[in-house]
Design goal:
- The structure is a single chain.
- The chain is mostly beta strands.
- The chain is about 5% helix and about 50% strand.
- The chain folds into 3 domains: about 180 residues, Galactose-binding lectin (Jelly Rolls, Sandwich); about 100 residues, Immunoglobulins (Immunoglobulin-like), CATH 2.60.40.10; about 120 residues, Sandwich (Immunoglobulin-like), CATH 2.60.40.
- Strands 1, 2, 5, 6, 8, 11 and 13 form a 7-stranded antiparallel beta sheet that branches.
- A hairpin with an 8-residue loop joins strand 15 and strand 16.
- The longest helix has 18 residues.
- The termini are far apart.
C-alpha cells in the first residue's frame, strides 16, 4: 500500500506539471530575425509581423492642401494606388510633406537592428512607359529630427512593377521604445496629365531585422551651454555657462533637459542608439557652436558616458545702419505710396516691424503686398504691425502699399524695428511729398492739381 501511494502521488505530480501554464518571453533566443509586412492589397494595416516586433498602420502625409495625395479606391491586383486627384500631380521637386510612412519597433525590453527594407512599386499599367513619377526613400529612428536616404531616386514604370530591395550595411540600431520609420516620397518632376492620371502603386512593404534583448539603459549624454563672448565657437576659460536653456534629443518620450546655473545639462539612463542633440533657440542670441545645422548627431553604445556635447551662443548685435526704408509714389493724383524695407537677412533680437504715420493723419488703406504680411493692416489707424514674432529678414520690396487720409505736405512715415522687450531698437523716417492743390470751380465741383 505504501508503494502504491507513492505511485499515485507521482502521477498527480506529473499531471500537475503537464497541465500547468507555460510562461515564455516574446523573444525566445538571444537574437531572432523577423519582419513587419504591409501587403497593401486591401488596406494600409500591418498584414503580418514576427514575434518581438510591433508595427502600426500606414501613415499618409497628403502634402499641400491644393494638391493632396490620397489612396485611390478600389485597390488593384498589384497593390495600393496613390494619386493627387483628377487634377494630376503638380510639377516640382520632392515635397517632404507628401509621403507614405511605415513604422516598426521592438517589443518592450528588446531592441531592433533593421537590416533590410523591401517593397514593390510601379505606375498605372500601360503598354508604354510615360516616365512621370519618381520617388525618394528615407528612414529615421528619432522621430524625424534627422533622417537618412536609402538608395537613389526611383523611376515608376508604367510597363511593370519593380522591386526596391536595400540591405543596410551593419544594420540600424533602434533602441527600446523608439520606432524605425520608413517614408516613401512620390513626386512628378514635370507634372502629370489630368486626363490620364498617374498612380504611385506599392505592395508588399517589408522591414526586417534582428531582435535582441535590450541592454540596460545606463548610457548618458552631457554637456554645457556657454556664452561665447568672442564668437569663436570655442568655450574659453573666461566664458560662463548659460542657465535656463532647453536641450533636446528629438524623441517625444525623452523630456527636454534644462541647463543649470553653470550651463550644464545631462541625459541619463539612455539606451544605446542614435541621437540628435539640439538646443531650443532664444531671441537675441546667435548660435556659434556646433556649426550648421547646429545639432550634434551621436551614436551611443550600451553604458557609454558621452560628455562635452556643448552648445555655444553669443549675444546678437543689430547694426541700425543696415536698416532703411524707401517709398515710391504710385499715382501723381493722390497720396498712394509703396514702401520698401532694406534690411539684412538676419534680424537678431528683433521681434516685430512697425510702420506708422504721424497723427492726426491716418492710413485710409494699406495692403502688405507679400504673401506673409498681407493681413497686418487695419484700416482707420496710423499703425501697420505684423503678427508677433513674424519678422521677415532680407530686403522687402513693395512691402506696404499705403494711402493717407490727409495729403498736406510733407508727411512723415516712421518705420520702427521692435526688440523682444517691445522697445524700439532701430528707426528710420521717410518724408512723403504728396500735396494736392484743390480749387473750387463750381459749387459742387473740386479740381485738384498735384502741387
Amino acid at each position: 500500500m505504501i508503494f502504491r501511494a507513492k505511485i499515485i502521488n507521482f502521477s498527480l505530480l506529473l499531471l500537475i506539471l503537464m497541465t500547468a501554464p507555460v510562461y515564455s518571453q516574446q523573444v525566445q533566443s538571444p537574437e531572432t530575425t523577423g519582419c513587419a509586412t504591409w501587403n497593401l492589397m486591401s488596406n494600409g494595416q500591418v498584414t503580418s509581423i514576427s514575434p518581438g516586433l510591433t508595427g502600426s498602420a500606414q501613415i499618409i502625409g497628403p502634402g499641400p492642401a491644393g494638391n493632396p495625395m490620397s489612396v485611390f479606391s478600389p485597390y488593384v491586383s498589384n497593390g495600393q494606388r496613390l494619386w493627387c486627384g483628377s487634377f494630376g500631380w503638380n510639377a516640382g521637386p520632392v515635397d517632404y510633406t507628401r509621403f507614405i510612412e511605415f513604422k516598426v519597433q521592438a517589443t518592450s525590453g528588446n531592441q531592433l537592428t533593421v537590416q533590410n527594407v523591401f517593397f514593390n512599386y510601379g505606375d498605372n499599367t500601360l503598354t508604354t512607359n510615360l516616365n512621370i513619377l519618381k520617388a525618394q526613400v528615407f528612414y529615421s529612428v528619432d522621430g524625424w529630427s534627422s533622417s537618412t536616404q536609402l538608395g537613389g531616386t526611383l523611376n515608376y514604370l508604367n510597363t511593370s512593377m519593380q522591386s526596391f530591395n536595400v540591405a543596410i550595411p551593419g544594420g540600424v540600431v533602434v533602441p527600446s521604445g523608439q520606432f524605425f520609420s520608413l517614408r516613401i516620397y512620390p513626386y512628378a518632376p514635370n507634372g502629370s496629365n489630368p486626363m490620364s492620371p498617374s498612380f504611385a502603386i506599392h505592395n508588399n512593404v517589408q522591414i526586417c531585422g534582428d531582435v535582441t534583448t535590450a541592454p540596460p539603459n545606463t548610457a548618458s549624454i552631457c554637456g554645457t551651454k556657454f556664452n561665447d563672448l568672442n564668437g569663436n565657437g570655442i568655450m574659453d576659460p573666461n566664458e560662463p555657462g548659460l542657465a535656463g536653456w532647453q536641450i533636446g534629443l528629438g524623441i517625444a518620450t525623452v523630456p527636454y533637459a534644462v541647463t543649470d546655473a553653470n550651463g550644464d545639462y545631462c541625459f541619463t539612463n539612455l539606451p544605446a542608439g542614435n541621437y540628435t542633440v539640439s538646443e531650443v533657440q532664444q531671441p537675441g542670441w546667435v548660435q556659434t557652436y556646433p556649426a550648421s545645422p547646429g545639432t550634434h548627431s551621436v551614436t551611443l553604445t550600451a553604458g557609454q558616458q558621452l560628455e562635452n556635447v556643448n552648445f555655444g551662443n553669443m549675444r546678437a548685435v543689430l547694426n541700425c545702419d543696415s536698416l532703411s526704408a524707401t517709398a515710391v509714389r504710385t499715382n501723381p493724383d493722390d497720396c498712394n505710396w509703396v514702401l520698401s524695407l532694406n534690411q539684412p537677412a538676419n534680424l537678431p533680437g528683433i521681434a516685430s516691424v512697425q510702420v506708422l504715420c504721424l497723427l492726426p493723419n491716418q492710413f485710409t488703406t494699406g495692403t502688405g503686398l507679400g504673401t506673409n504680411y498681407q493681413n497686418w493692416f487695419t484700416s482707420g489707424t496710423n499703425i501697420f504691425t505684423p503678427p508677433s514674432g513674424l519678422v521677415p529678414g532680407g530686403d522687402l520690396n513693395n512691402f506696404f502699399n499705403m494711402s493717407l487720409l490727409y495729403v498736406t505736405t510733407p508727411q512723415l512715415i516712421v518705420v520702427n524695428w521692435i526688440d523682444t522687450s517691445g522697445n524700439v531698437a532701430c528707426s528710420d523716417t521717410v518724408e512723403l511729398d504728396c500735396e494736392i492743390a484743390c480749387t473750387t470751380i463750381l459749387e459742387d465741383t473740386v479740381v485738384c492739381i498735384d502741387g
